[in-house]
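Late entry, written up from scratch paper. The run itself happened at the end of the previous shift, but nothing got recorded in the book at the time, so transcribing now.
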Amino acid sequence: MAERRARLDTFLKRQGIDPGTAVLLAGDASNRRYFRTPGGVLMDAPPDLEDVRPFVRVARHLRDLGLSAPEILAEDVDDGWLLLEDLGDDLFSRVLATGAAPEPLYEMAVDVLVTITRHPPPQWLDAYDLRPLLAEADLFLDWYLPAVGVEPDQERRDTWRDAWAAVLTPHLDVLPVLVLRDCHVDNLLWLRDRPSPANVGLIDFQDALAGHPAYDLASLLDDVRNPLPSGLVARLLKRFLAATSLEPSEFRAAFAALSAQRSSKILGIFTRLARRDQKPRYLTWLPATWKLLEHRISDDGLLAVREWFDRHVPVPLRQSDAFNGLGNP
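Output as recorded:
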């Protein structure tokens, strides 16, 4: 750690920044750390744990679209350091916490996603097709089910994947767009002095893939940490569809399917963060995640997944007190 800190100080000095001015910012669920300096925000991503090159490539692509990903001011990709443009502190989540009306902020974010749909994704992005979608859904089997005392045997795994394949496959024959994959209010900043769509700062997009345009919208509107009234979700969906050429009924069905897939994945991820990474605060959102998942799988197009849950995860196992050794959220 001391050796890496010394190299970090050297990197900052090369940019004309006094290392003593670097202030640690709040981290996230990854292995990255961030420091604010007078010359920009430093991303510290140990190369044995994180690769900063995808972030650099996606950031430059987004900026080419006229969107406000942070400018890369300096980089050392081999050692895992990036000096980024400082986009400020006005995360949507913080602005909302001060009592700001949510609809204008969400409308700005929707307009960013509309902009992304109007451009083909970079050819170097991997496909967000059935294989990674199923692999993500498997996190529910790998982490949540064991935590509630259920063995994810081969029969459960096979029928789980069959159910999700049946639900997702009909929606994958669509022109792909760049999918940020973590588009929510903790990763968006209000840049008040910039015109739309550049008035939304974008961060945490290094895992971007090329997939269905409904995924990021589902991530934004079906956010278990910041639930929105159903009427507002409907209006924002309508806004998105009005600005695109996508067929509304198919898009809404894809939205429900991808939202349900994301919620299943999140149940696994939050459980993993609590159990493996000793971050029990993530359990706080499990009840809201189940509520959202149950709402989305009530859609007619998700019958196969709904029947799998009803068979293998009865209601008592969807409650906070079902956990073994994790405590109550």
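The first helix runs from residue 2 to 14.
(Scratch paper discarded after transcription.)
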